[in-house]
Design a protein that fits this description.
Elements lengths: L1 E4 L6 E13 L8 E10 L3 E10 L4 E12 L4 H4 L5 E18 L5 E18 L5 E16 L4 E10 L2 E6 L6 H5 L25 E18 L6 E16 L7 E7 L1
Parallel strand pairs: 9-11, 10-11
Antiparallel strand pairs: 1-2, 2-3, 3-4, 4-5, 5-6, 6-7, 7-8, 8-9, 8-10, 11-12, 12-13
Length: 259
């Protein structure tokens, strides 16, 4: 199966092969369930496997899902709608359980429990070769996402060998000003009211029990002054516990770096 979206720039093109789908005990009667198992190759090295118990009425899907080796560069066209960057490298992996259920009002709630990993990521400016962000591995453990309750809890976030570059140019504009795409109304393309959904209701509750950064480096350059000011943070190590978007009190922070 070839999937193409030419509305993205560059165009999104993805091949799914081989595609193996096995359906066992298919039934449409209300309350009856059947099994769906898939094993799908994604692009050059990615793979998606699922084992799901499915019910059509009322709608319910639950089971296991695993994603391995899914390359990020193919999605660069969608990222380009919000930021002037390229994605030279990066892969995504995830493994866990998923549950999806619909209610009488037509709303669908999704729950995911498992892990997520982004490895060998690199992000560069679209108008040059300047590297903005890279890391060896970003791992999220004990992820619990529940869209019905509006909550996301992560047991641990581990970031290995990250690098970031922050620059102020001759006009005083920061790197983020060069990267983000601003719409005709003057608002950033992906910007929304913090802590609220589009309908004005409270947004998702996010809590991370532990954040660890190991071997990080941050380079800073200010070209708005002469001579330009340069500095860096090397061998950055950070440990942060008890982070919650709706309650920033009680955070335990330990930060070490060489300047």
């Amino acid at each position: 199966v070839d999937v193409t979206d030419r509305s993205a720039e560059p165009a999104f093109a993805l091949r799914l092969a081989p595609v193996d789908v096995t359906v066992t005990g298919f039934a449409t009667a209300p309350g009856t369930t059947f099994q769906v198992a898939t094993a799908i190759g994604v692009a050059d090295s990615g793979r998606l496997t699922t084992a799901l118990e499915t019910r059509l009425e009322p709608l319910s899907v639950s089971g296991t899902v695993e994603v391995a080796g899914l390359g990020l560069p193919v999605f660069a066209g969608y990222v380009g709608r919000f930021a002037r960057v390229t994605l030279p490298s990066g892969t995504v992996a995830a493994a866990g359980t998923v549950a999806l259920a619909g209610d009488d009002a037509g709303a669908t709630a999704v729950r995911y429990d498992g892990s997520l990993e982004v490895a060998d990521l690199a992000v560069r400016l679209a108008d040059g070769d300047a590297e903005l962000v890279r890391w060896q591995r970003l791992g999220l453990k004990d992820v619990a996402l529940d869209s019905g309750k509006g909550s996301l809890v992560v047991g641990a976030v581990e970031l290995s060998d990250p690098f970031a570059q922050v620059e102020i140019d001759e006009t005083g504009a920061m790197t983020i000003d060069r990267v983000r795409i601003v719409g005709a109304d003057g608002e950033a393309a992906a910007e929304s009211t913090a802590g609220e959904n589009d309908d004005g209701q409270a947004g998702m509750s996010v809590r991370v029990e532990q954040i660890r950064i190991d071997g990080g480096k941050v380079q800073f350059v200010d070209r708005s002054v002469q001579p330009p000011f340069r500095t860096s943070l090397d061998d950055l190590r950070l440990s942060l516990g008890g982070f919650a978007l709706d309650d920033l009190g009680g955070i335990d922070l330990d930060l070490q770096a060489k300047v």
